[in-house]
C-alpha cells in the first residue's frame, strides 16, 4: 500500500508531493488555502483539496478513508496547531509520520520574540515606521501599537480575504501592500526605502521562504529585524525525509525523480519566450534569474532567486534540495556570450535541459529587413573587443553592447576610423519602449540610449585583402625607421599569430609591423613599444589611417616600458637599443611559451642575437637572410636596386 497523505504549506511540501507522485505513490494533498491549491495545479496530482480536514479527528478519518500508510507534514514552521493535529491523528491510527523541517537561520543582531503579540508589545516602546511581513492571520495584534495607522505598513498576500481583513482593521492605502512573494533583496530594499521603515517584523521562513533576502535588505538599509521565534518542533531535514520515505514506501525516489534544471533563453522583451519555455517555467518550483528577467517572465506566486552567477546558483541548489524542477532564465540567445556555458559546467550533477530563445541578432535583423546569414557576430558587452576591426573586413557586423556607454563608444570609434559606415542600434528590443535608429556614426553620437543595446553595422566596401601585405606607401613615414613591406610580411607570417593573440612590437618605429600584426589578430591586442616620441606620434597617425584601434602605443624604453603590460603570446623585436638580453628575459618571464621573431640588420646584431638565444636556453627554429632588390626604370631598361639584407630569427622556449 503506497497511499500517502501530504499536508503541504511550503515549497518542500509541493516538491515532495511531486516526487512521490512521479515515483508511483498514490498522493493525496491537503493545503490550507485556495492559493496553495492553485500553486500546485498542473503538478499532475489528482487529489488536491483545501482545508485542515476538521482537526485531529478529521485527519484520522481521512487517513482511514484513503488507506494511507504514511503522512507527510510539510506545513509551515509556524503552523503549530495543524502540526499537533496531524501528530495526534497519526498516533490514533498508528500511521507513520514524516515531519519535514526547514533549517533555522542565524539570529545575530535581531530582536527575538515569542509571538506576534510580543512583537507588537516591543514595538509599542519604539519609534519609526514598521514593515510587517507576518501576514494577515494575526494582523489585529498590530493595532495596539500607538499611532499604528501612521507607523505600521503591513505586506500580505494579494487575496481578497487578506485585503478585506486588513482593511477592516484600518490598514489601507499607503499602510497596506498586497503582493505575492517570496521577494528579492532588491524589492525588499525598494519597499523599505519607499516607506522609510526602521523595523521589519518577520518569521524565520528559511531560504526558500525569502528570509535571507529580508535580512540582507535590512542590513543594506539599516532597518532592524524583529524575529518571531519558531515554535519548538521535531522532524527531519528534506534530504533525510526523502530517504525515510524511500525506505518506508520501498520506492527509489531519487533515481526516478532526478533534479531537473532548465536553462531558459527568455528571448526578446515581455513575450519573447517560446511556448515550450513558458510551459517549463510554469511547472518549475523555483525560478532563478536577474530581477529584470523574473519580471519579464511573469513568475508571480513562484519561489524565486535573484542571481545570475553560476557558482552561487549551484551552491544555492545544493543547499536547497527541496527544489526538484528549477528554471534559470538567461537573456537572448543562450549560445551566444551567455551565462549558460558556466552554468553547464557548474551543474554537472543535475539533469540539465537547455531551451533557446529568440536571439537578439535574429530579432534586430528582422526589424531591419535584412538577412543575417552573412552577419559577423561579435560582443562588446562587458568585454574589450575590436568591433571596428570586424566592421573593416565584413559587410555586416552584429555587436552586443554595454548599454548607452557601449553604444556611444562604438559610434565614437567608428566615427574616428570608419566614418562612412551605417550603424543601426536597437534599444530595449521587444519591450514597450523599444527604439531602433540608423545613421552614420557621427549622426548617432548625440542620441541617448538605454541599458539594453545591440547594433548592426553595415560596411558597403569591406576590406578583404590579405592583412599581411601592406604597401609601404600606405604608411606615413616621417623620419622614423620602418621595416619594409617584403621583410615585414615575412616576419609577421613567421610569428604565426592567432586572431586573439597578444603581441608586442619592441622598437616599433613607424608602427608598420604593429599594424600588420593588428590586422592579423583583430580579436587580440598589439602593444607598440617605442622610446622616441616623434615615432610614437607617427604610430598614432598610422593606426588611424589603417584602421587598427587594437594597437596601443606604449611610450618608453624596453624592457622597463613592458613591465606592467599583459603577458604576450607573440613578440617582434625590431630594435632593442642595446637591451636585447633584458628584453628577451622579460618576455620569457611574462610567458615562457612566447614566440619571438628578432630582426637583425648588421652582422654584429645577429651575433648578439645568437648569443642571447643560447644564453636564454631558447630553441632557434630558423634564421633566414632576406635579400630584396626592387626594380627601377632607367629609360627603357629596369635596374635592380638592392635593399639592406635582413636576418630574421624565429625562437621559442
Question: What's the short story on this structure?
Answer:
The protein has 653 residues and is α/β, with parallel strands linked by helices.
Describe the fold and architecture:
- The protein is α/β, with parallel strands linked by helices and 653 residues long.
- The chain has 24 helices and 30 strands.
- Helix 20 packs across helix 21.
Relevant terms:
653 residues, alpha/beta, 7-stranded mixed beta sheet, 35% helix, elongated
Structural topology:
Blueprint: E1 3-8, H1 11-22, E2 26-31, H2 34-40, E3 47-50, H3 55-66, E4 70-74, H4 80-93, E5 96-99, E6 111-113, H5 116-123, E7 129-132, H6 148-151, E8 152-156, H7 160-168, E9 176-178, H8 185-195, E10 197-203, H9 211-221, E11 224-228, H10 238-249, H11 253-256, E12 260-265, H12 275-283, E13 286-289, H13 291-297, E14 303-306, H14 310-319, E15 325-330, H15 340-346, E16 351-355, H16 360-368, E17 375-379, H17 387-393, E18 396-402, H18 403-417, E19 422-427, E20 435-439, H19 441-444, E21 452-458, H20 485-495, E22 502-506, H21 512-520, E23 525-530, H22 533-545, E24 551-555, E25 570-573, H23 580-590, E26 595-600, H24 603-615, E27 619-626, E28 629-634, E29 637-642, E30 646-652
Parallel strand pairs: 1-2, 1-4, 2-3, 4-5, 6-11, 7-8, 7-10, 8-9, 10-11, 12-15, 12-16, 13-14, 13-15, 17-18, 22-23, 22-25, 23-24, 25-26
Antiparallel strand pairs: 18-21, 19-20, 19-21, 26-30, 27-30, 28-29
Helix pairs in contact: 3-4, 8-9, 14-15, 20-21
